[in-house]
Design goal:
The protein is α+β, with helices and mostly antiparallel strands. It is about 30% helix and about 35% strand. Helix 4 (about 145-155) packs across helix 5. The longest helix has 15 residues, at about 85-100.
């Protein structure tokens, strides 16, 4: 019985999920910084309509997002913006406005793509974008990432792009999958722009 409950609770994953991990910021302060509109608080359950994030209307200039309440010092913001530079600017903006660490992560093994942007108090620590074996962006220096990459090299392993991503993600913040362990999760959905 417990297994079936856990299976039903696995509602969210790091895979194919453009998300920001925001440390020590309240949901209220994040929403204020975003200056969002059309806000609605809903329960996050098996019936949640993910289509909300993928509005493909070319006339729509707003960007839909969802924001989860804080769990163990971390809030999670999800949006569906593919542009890496725009995402970098949003990460920097939130980090500066909230005076905290904001990390952005994305991985999609089906298209061999991973990205991360790490900021602290408005300062870019690291941005990385790799797709199909090509590094498209590699800016800044982040000590933990360097240590992870060196360990992979020391183990005589190729620096497999997924290994870099997962080891970094799990070493610097609480993964978004923590939401699957929570009961009665509320989120705020709305639009930017």
């Amino acid at each position: 019985m417990a297994d079936s409950i856990n299976t039903q609770r696995n509602l969210i994953s790091s895979l194919v999920n453009c998300h920001f991990c925001i440390k020590n910021a309240s949901k209220t302060s994040i929403l204020k910084a975003l200056n969002a509109s059309n806000l609605e608080v809903v329960e996050f359950d098996e019936k949640f309509d993910w289509d909300f994030l993928s509005d493909e209307n070319p006339n729509n200039t707003t960007k839909p997002f969802i924001l989860f309440s804080e769990i163990n010092e971390w809030c999670y913001l999800i949006w569906n913006v593919w542009d890496f530079e725009e995402t970098k600017q949003m990460t920097l903006f939130l980090s500066k406005e909230l005076n905290t660490k904001v990390y952005y992560f994305f991985i999609d093994p089906w298209i061999a793509t991973c990205r991360w942007i790490l900021t602290d108090k408005g300062k870019l620590l690291k941005s990385y974008n790799e797709s199909h074996g090509t590094i498209l962006n590699d800016e800044g220096d982040f000590e933990i990432e360097t240590i992870i990459r060196n360990k992979l090299k020391d183990q005589k392993e190729n620096e497999f792009w997924e290994d870099k991503f997962w080891k970094l993600y799990k070493n610097i913040c609480q993964p978004i999958e923590i939401l699957n362990k929570e009961q009665n999760i509320l989120l705020t959905k709305g639009n930017l722009g």
